């Protein structure tokens, strides 16, 4: 759209109207500057969709068990409670989910005209659906970034009635998103990286998901917009509303319900520093847990940090790494394509 400013110069007396669905305050300013608009009237109708319930959880081992939670049993059959779109990040996963659910491969028109109840689709197909009564949007796999996610869940509840948006993901899903950035450079790549990290933060947050979305699209105004706690807002708000938001971490919580990550942080950052950021997350974790794996050099066995974190499991340390990377204490450096591996490296 930055090139459209040339038209503004050619037709200086012609009124210009710029319309967009999901533009942040920064993008709106960029549009006005690119079109050479002087003192434009900017109207933003708001990004809050209070009729959409937002929920996120990790994928289970079985696709059918995950998706069937959104169905009801009618006789001897399972049916979705309303028109449902299931977004998948790749064609391969789309076909796999479709096969598991035994969904017939019907065209777009069949779904719009209520001939079928559920569509399993990649984003390219699903974004073309304009149906007001979609009751559920399921992402089976992490969305590519926060702005794409907002547009995709926007297919639900266009009639204003209560609808649900549920996302199943695993940490490995983000490898796909990072892979798609391999040919990008400069500011555009930096922007896309930021959008992916914001998506990761959204999926991992224990705070209100709606507030996080609004803060991205509306700035601090959006963050302050939602103040009342509601159990029909998102899964995190439901837990807080029901006073069930305290997670026991192996009996390690203090009396005020918090956990002190400082000792773990000291061990983890020390291990990453010891290996000089030349390895992915597994080598520092195996080192801390005292592993004899051949990837851990024997000369490191005498180091004071070797085995210092063996009292905690591998999954615990992976979660700590991921949490720290979201908070920019650690950086996951994704190597360029000329490397033999796309495994991200840990760096301070």
TrEMBL record:
Catalytic activity: Couples ATP hydrolysis with the unwinding of duplex DNA by translocating in the 3'-5' direction; ATP + H2O = ADP + phosphate + H(+)
Key words of the record: ATP-binding, Helicase, Hydrolase, Nucleotide-binding, Nucleus
SMART domains hit by this protein: HELICc, RQC
Keyword ATP-binding: yes
Main subcellular localisation: nucleus
Cell location: Nucleus
Entry's EC annotation: 5.6.2.4
GO molecular function, one term: 3'-5' DNA helicase activity
Gene Ontology biological process terms in this record: DNA replication; double-strand break repair via homologous recombination; telomere maintenance
PROSITE patterns on file: HELICASE_CTER (PS51194)
InterPro entries xref list: DNA_helicase_ATP-dep_RecQ (IPR004589), Helicase_C-like (IPR001650), P-loop_NTPase (IPR027417), RecQ_Zn-bd (IPR032284), RQC_domain (IPR018982), WH-like_DNA-bd_sf (IPR036388), WH_DNA-bd_sf (IPR036390)
Gene Ontology CC entries for this record: chromosome; cytoplasm; nucleoplasm
Domain Helicase C-terminal span(s) in chain numbering: 48-204
Family indicated by similarity: Belongs to the helicase family. RecQ subfamily.
The protein's name: ATP-dependent DNA helicase
Organism, scientific name: Timema poppense (Walking stick)
């Amino acid at each position: 759209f930055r090139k459209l400013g040339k038209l503004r110069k050619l037709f200086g007396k012609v009124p210009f109207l710029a319309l967009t669905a999901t533009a942040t305050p920064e993008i709106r300013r960029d549009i006005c500057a690119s079109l050479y608009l002087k003192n434009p009237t900017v109207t933003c109708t708001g990004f809050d969709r209070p009729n959409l319930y937002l929920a996120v959880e990790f994928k289970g081992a079985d696709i059918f068990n995950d998706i069937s939670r959104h169905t009801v049993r009618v006789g001897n059959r399972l049916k979705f409670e309303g028109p449902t779109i299931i977004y998948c990040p790749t064609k391969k996963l789309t076909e796999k989910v479709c096969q598991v659910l035994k969904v017939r491969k019907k065209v777009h028109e069949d779904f719009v005209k209520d001939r079928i109840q559920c569509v399993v689709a990649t984003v390219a197909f699903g974004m073309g659906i304009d149906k007001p009564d979609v009751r559920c949007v399921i992402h089976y796999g992490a969305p590519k970034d926060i702005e794409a996610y907002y547009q995709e869940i926007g297919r639900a509840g266009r009639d204003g009635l209560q609808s649900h948006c549920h996302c199943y993901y695993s940490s490995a899903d983000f490898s796909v998103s990072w892979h798609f950035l391999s040919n990008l450079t400069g500011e555009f790549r930096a922007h896309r990286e930021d959008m992916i990290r914001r998506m990761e933060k959204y999926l991992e947050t224990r705070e209100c998901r709606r507030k996080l979305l609004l803060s991205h699209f509306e700035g601090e105004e959006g963050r302050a917009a939602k103040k009342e706690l509601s159990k029909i807002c998102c899964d995190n708000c439901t837990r807080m509303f029901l006073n069930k938001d305290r997670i026991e971490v192996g009996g390690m919580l203090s009396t005020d319900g918090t956990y002190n990550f400082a000792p773990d942080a000291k061990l983890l950052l020390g291990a990453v520093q010891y290996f000089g950021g030349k390895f992915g997350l597994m080598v520092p974790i195996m080192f801390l847990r005292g592993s004899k794996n051949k990837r851990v050099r024997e000369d490191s066995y005498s180091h004071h940090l070797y085995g210092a974190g063996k009292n905690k499991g591998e999954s615990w340390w992976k979660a700590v790494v991921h949490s720290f990377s979201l908070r920019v204490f650690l950086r996951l450096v994704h190597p360029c394509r000329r490397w033999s591996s796309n495994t991200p490296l840990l760096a301070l």
